[in-house]
Design a protein that fits this description.
Largest sheet: 5 strands, parallel
Number of helices: 8
Length: 177
């Protein structure tokens, strides 16, 4: 491999974001060596990258050690998270990961922390007079939520992603279930 070729690792290569990142990088006029990782053995991830590595689950105690070993094994220059869980894990271990010499493509760590909790983010943007704040409440009472929002309304987890855990509440019985 040409010594000027950059080695880029993209996590979550079996997901739409991960393989989308890999496909976009593959179109670069600069030659890149793309390393894709995923926990799934039956995914198309290997077709979107030059090298495929089966990943340890992000929640595993040994995940960071696994990641650091892959960074060393492939002399990785840059890592890009393709799944949200990796964004949070990498943020929490950023100094350890950077000590390996790799660049980490992450947003501002304070912003990552703030956006992990939807309520905290809502309070922040309301306090800063953002016109994009969607009216939100932590009120646990159906009647006051109905009065404020009407029906149907959405219940969402404070910390979650990918529309997981969202419930459309159409009436009191559904709210109390």
């Amino acid at each position: 491999m040409n010594s000027s070729t950059k080695n880029i690792l993209v996590s979550g290569a079996s997901g739409i974001i991960g393989y989308g990142i890999l496909r976009s990088l593959a179109e670069s006029p600069v030659r890149l060596n793309l390393i894709g990782t995923t926990i799934y053995t039956d995914s198309p991830a290997e077709y979107f990258c030059d090298v495929f590595e089966k990943a340890a689950p992000t929640s595993d105690d040994g995940y960071i050690d696994w990641l650091l070993s892959i960074i060393a094994k492939h002399d990785i220059d840059l890592i890009i998270p393709g799944i949200e869980d990796d964004v949070y894990k990498w943020k929490d271990h950023l100094s350890e990961i950077k000590a390996s010499g790799v660049e980490v493509l992450l947003n501002n760590t304070s912003l990552i922390s703030l956006c992990k909790d939807k309520w905290a983010f809502y309070e922040y943007i309301k306090a800063n007079d953002s016109p994009y704040a969607i009216e939100t409440s932590l009120d646990p009472e159906y009647d006051s939520l109905y009065e404020k929002f009407g029906a149907p309304f959405l219940l969402k987890q404070r910390c979650g992603h990918g529309s997981k855990g969202i419930v459309i509440i159409t009436d009191r019985d559904m709210f109390g279930a």
